Amino acid sequence: SMQVVFLHPDLGIGGAERLVVDAALALKSKGHRVSFITAHHDRAHCFEETKDGTFSINVAGDWLPRKIMGGFHAVCAYIRMIYITLYLVFASSFKPDVVFCDQISVCIPIIRLASRAKVVFYCHYPDKLLTGRESWMKWLYRKPLDWMEERTTGMAHFVLVNSHFTARIFRGAFTSLKDIETHVLHPTINSTTFDKAMNSRLRLNNSTLPSTAKYIFLSINRYERKKNLELAIKALDTLRDRVSHDDWGMTHFLMAGGYDERVSENVNHHKELVRLVENLKLQSKITFLRSVTSTQKMALLSSSTAVLYTPSNEHFGIVPVEAMYMKKPVIGVNSGGPKETILDGITGFLCKGDAESFADAMLRFVKDPTLSAKMGAAGRERVKNNFSFEKFATTLNGIIQSVARLSRELSVYSKS
């Protein structure tokens, strides 16, 4: 049994947060002592496992700013991460064998210098590629941060990535680290939670879903522009012209998304989508849901015919895995992580990222009401065979144990 501490900047609701919570659950299931240190944890906007006593959650530095004069988000994130790292090393009682960190690598050299812990870094996607360089000022601002990200990532004892797609992007983005071995650890789902939901046969009420709905399409994603949620709405608009009047009357779309009042993009983009629906006169056909609970998400998945997953070049994307485990086919864009999860024509459809292609796939489920169950069963088997929680837990446990045995001289950094 080892002590493993997770350093994560904000324990909210999102794919990165779901991953670290599942990783913590996996290591706890293998007998390790697991704790979190974070700069922000809102009990009204977090995963259940982070507030029900499953883990020790330690918050430090929440008083530090998230932005300065409306900008400098990255610098503030780096400062907050450095603060929680200093808290771990100098103010906490933790003496971890392994520190698991993700998203922000600036904490790694501090841990290396000030503790005996080994460091595992999980790269969801290089941060330097997530922000634009619209002006020379922005380029100048990002240059030292990009250098620091590459340099500090290389100091980890072990680097994990969430997909083969991200592994390729990692090697291209960090040229000085191209010889470092990255290991793919696909995210998983905590299948126990999903099994309970399926057994309880959760259903939606009529205020969420009209009683006439038979063909129910679902989108689950944060209200962010990069998630391309407009594509789902435009696909529904395109489908309207391709189905009979009766079938259109039985079609409904549910858009559920992560929504945080503190994040201006969530608020603004939700308004943009509502305006788009109004312009297309689809108000009676779409229900918007914000910040759904885990129970609501299960009910949404249970009630749907198929799930629309609209981001292009998504780094991994956990929603398709969740949907397939709940026996629901997924219509996704033929790029990025979904190419590693969705089997085209078997567990769903991989499409071009345009409304016509998505509408074509949606039409298949309207024309053949048996298709959803058939593809859903295949999806369930795919997740059980390739993305199971037990497989994830066993792999991660092996990594943690091997990292803990490393001497400081045998680090990834010393090879670079």
Give me the secondary-structure topology.
Blueprint: E1 3-8, H1 15-29, E2 33-38, E3 56-59, H2 73-91, E4 98-102, H3 108-114, E5 118-123, H4 136-153, E6 158-161, H5 164-173, E7 182-184, H6 191-200, E8 215-220, H7 229-240, H8 245-249, E9 251-257, H9 264-279, E10 286-290, H10 294-303, E11 306-309, H11 319-325, E12 330-333, H12 338-341, E13 348-351, H13 355-367, H14 371-386, H15 389-405, H16 412-415
Parallel strand pairs: 1-2, 1-4, 2-3, 4-5, 5-6, 6-7, 8-9, 8-11, 9-10, 11-12, 12-13
Average pLDDT reading: 92
Question: What is the CATH architecture descriptor of the largest domain?
Answer: 3-Layer(aba) Sandwich
- Largest sheet descriptor: 7 strands, parallel
Structural class: alpha/beta
Radius of gyration: 22 Å
Which percent bin holds the helix content?
40-55%
Strand content: 15-25%
Q: How many domain modules?
A: 2
Order of helices and strands: EHEEHEHEHEHEHEHHEHEHEHEHEHHHH
Sum up the overall morphology in one term: globular
Q: Please, what is the CATH homologous superfamily of the largest domain?
A: Glycogen Phosphorylase B
Unreliable residue runs: 408-416
CATH topology of the largest domain, what is it called?
Rossmann fold
Pathway: Protein modification; protein glycosylation
Enzyme class: transferase
Domain Glycosyl transferase family: 210-382
Membrane topology: Single-pass membrane protein
Describe this structure in words.
α1 (15-29) packs across α15 (389-405). It is built from 16 helices and 13 strands. Residues 408-416 have low confidence and may be disordered. Helices cover 44% and strands 15% of the residues. The chain folds into 2 domains: 3-188 and 389-415, Rossmann fold (3-Layer(aba) Sandwich), CATH 3.40.50.2000; 191-386, 3-Layer(aba) Sandwich (Rossmann fold), CATH 3.40.50.2000. It is α/β, with parallel strands linked by helices. The strands form 2 sheets. The chain has a 7-stranded parallel beta sheet with strand order 3-2-1-4-5-6-7, with helices on both faces. Strands 10-9-8-11-12-13 form a 6-stranded parallel beta sheet, sandwiched between helices. The longest helix has 19 residues, at 73-91. The protein is globular, with a radius of gyration of 22 Å. The chain has helices spanning 15-29, 73-91, 108-114, 136-153, 164-173, 191-200, 229-240, 245-249, 264-279, 294-303, 319-325, 338-341, 355-367, 371-386, 389-405, 412-415; strands spanning 3-8, 33-38, 56-59, 98-102, 118-123, 158-161, 182-184, 215-220, 251-257, 286-290, 306-309, 330-333, 348-351. The two termini are 30 Å apart.
